[in-house]
Automatic annotation (TrEMBL):
Similarity annotation: Belongs to the flavin monoamine oxidase family.
Name of the protein: Amine oxidase
GO molecular function: oxidoreductase activity
Organism this protein belongs to: Mycena belliarum
Keywords: FAD, Flavoprotein, Oxidoreductase, Signal
Superkingdom of origin: Eukaryota
Length: 486
């Protein structure tokens, strides 16, 4: 690389690129540097292993344990014919990850507060209505109209869910994906990310979803990919970053244990939640345009709550809905004790999102377990619900390495804000991760493409200063038209 002044005698480690965070984005950024002939990089990761939000763990009573996914679980959008493939699918195939087809809309049972009841027609209507909402969003993009909330979009297409059955059906199609309510979500951004992933007419991969049931964990695909090129000296685990100082010439990172690392460039891949909560401090503080972009997006929470029982007493479908009077109260259930999934495991899990997910993180495990057993009692009124043999849920929202599960745009989405979230700050400090992805934020493939693109940009800077270019940013994001009073 270009010769740079090195005033970094205090640094214990000196490298060309510091990759901060060892999730999908960090590992793919590292691979991109490696492919460009740059092997002087160091991945700095707080956890004991690589993978980030691809995190799995043992679950179940002794002698009857399975690996379950605390975080990402699906390849969302796969491939249609020889159209574009989701790169996560490509990695899963390459590393032989075991998956099962997830039939969101065809393998589903429906329940209410008094047991099984058939409201599949209501669900079908919710699916059709959501398509109308995304079409409305697409029109607004092509005519350059202001963003609205997805709730406004629903209302304008003539839908106002009122009954528990209508609410849970809408929840399943909407909140279960974005991890927040339509009120909390941008109409344009949510439709955008949906279309680019699932709609082949918009360049999306496919409508299909594959669920990892691999007993090495879904993370195997990214860990195995890393193993193909990473050398031990390029990885620093159990290393928590506290401060990132940067100048026109270099970056200096200080770890929680006092270790100082220095480099020509840094790529931070920490979650939006980490950046929002000052878990990592920047010196000098980030410019106002960057702070505004970071604080303009929401870190949403998606929480899976796992139960294991001695005997299976529930549905034989992959999914079940539970319609409660309170919208978002333990609405979606998944059975894993199924052929092709984890047969014989005795595992079932519920998902909650958004504010409800934050709410349960503040409760004790015993309280949450009691609530779930009460709901199961309502879903299966003829069954005496036994005590589970195991119970667990991850607390993503309170975890200082994540502070939620993935990003979601509130109403008022503006492309310059998105560009600002992604832009480098000064010549040395770069940003990647699911949240910075313009087309696929929230998804594994978003994290992947950001690692690829930002890695390639930094590689240019390292290899040939004349091809090194900053990403565009807007100092002050303006309103579309001037505000007028009276
Ligand atoms: C519950 C849940 C379900 C999901 N389901 C899906 C799904 O089914 N399909 C899908 O496509 N996507 C899903 N996602 C989203 C997907 O997991 C993410 O988009 C993706 O993993 C993000 O990768 P990343 O590299 O951007 O960030 P991360 O994976 O968060 O990587 C960043 C790394 O930085 C580390 N770190 C944080 N702070 C510090 C610090 N101070 N010092 C050092 N290291 C630090 C973290 O430990 C982490 O390893 C889900 C996410 C969650 C949480």
């Amino acid at each position: 690389g270009p010769a740079l002044p090195r005033a970094r005698s205090a640094a214990e480690h000196d490298t060309t690129v510091l990759i901060l965070g060892g999730g999908v984005s960090g590992i793919i950024a590292a691979r991109t540097l490696h492919e460009q002939g740059i092997d002087r990089f160091l991945i700095v990761e707080a956890h004991k292993e690589l993978g980030g939000r691809m995190r799995s763990g043992q679950f179940g009573k002794e002698g009857r344990r399975s690996i379950i996914e605390h975080g990402a679980n699906w390849i969302q959008g796969t491939q249609e014919g020889d159209g574009p493939a989701n790169p996560i699918l490509t990695l899963a195939r390459k590393h032989g990850v075991k998956t099962a087809e997830s039939d969101f809309y065809t393998s589903i049972a429906t329940y209410g507060e008094t047991g099984a009841e058939d409201y599949l027609p209501v669900l079908e209507k919710a699916i059709a209505v959501y398509t109308n909402v995304t079409v409305l969003a697409g029109k607004r993009v092509s005519t350059n109209q202001v963003d609205l909330s997805a709730r406004t979009g629903y209302s304008l297409t003539g839908t106002k869910p009122k009954t528990p059955q209508e609410m849970v059906s809408e929840y399943y199609v909407f909140d279960w994906e974005y991890a927040q309510t339509p009120e909390q979500t941008s109409l344009i951004a949510s439709s955008w990310v949906n279309n680019f992933t699932f709609d082949t007419d918009q360049g999306g991969f496919s409508e299909d979803n594959l669920l990892s049931v691999d007993q090495r964990g879904f993370k195997h695909l990214i860990q195995a990919e890393g193993q193909e090129f990473l050398k031990p000296e390029q990885i620093m685990l159990n290393a928590t970053v506290r401060t990132i100082a940067h100048s026109n010439n270099s970056v200096t990172v200080t770890l929680a244990n006092g270790t100082i690392l220095s480099a020509d460039y840094a790529i931070t891949t920490f979650s939006l939640g980490v950046l929002q909560n000052d878990d990592v401090l920047f010196e000098p503080t980030l410019p106002v345009w960057k702070q505004e972009a970071i604080q303009s997006v929401t870190m949403a929470t998606y929480t899976k709550i796992f139960l294991q029982f001695k005997d299976k007493f529930w549905f034989d479908t992959q999914f079940a809905l539970y319609a409660d009077k309170t919208r978002g109260r333990y609405p979606v259930w998944q059975g894993l004790d199924l052929e092709g999934f984890l047969p014989g495991s005795g595992i079932i899990f519920a998902t909650v999102t958004g504010d409800y997910a934050e709410r349960i993180e503040a409760l004790s495990d015993a309280q949450v377990q009691a609530e779930l057993l009460e709901v199961l009692g309502k879903m299966f009124p003829g069954t005496k619900i036994p005590k589970p043999t195991a119970f667990f849920f991850p607390r993503w929202f309170s975890d200082p390495l994540f502070r939620g599960s993935y990003s979601n745009w509130p109403a008022g989405f503006a492309s310059p804000s998105q560009a600002n979230l992604r832009a480098n700050v000064g010549p040395r400090l770069w940003f990647a991760g699911e949240a910075t992805s313009p087309k696929y934020f929230g998804f594994l493939h978003g994290a992947y493409f950001e690692g690829l693109d930002i890695g390639a940009r930094v590689a240019k800077c390292v290899n040939n200063a004349s091809t090194c270019a900053s990403l565009p940013f807007t100092e002050s994001v303006p309103n579309g038209s001037p505000y007028t009073v009276a």
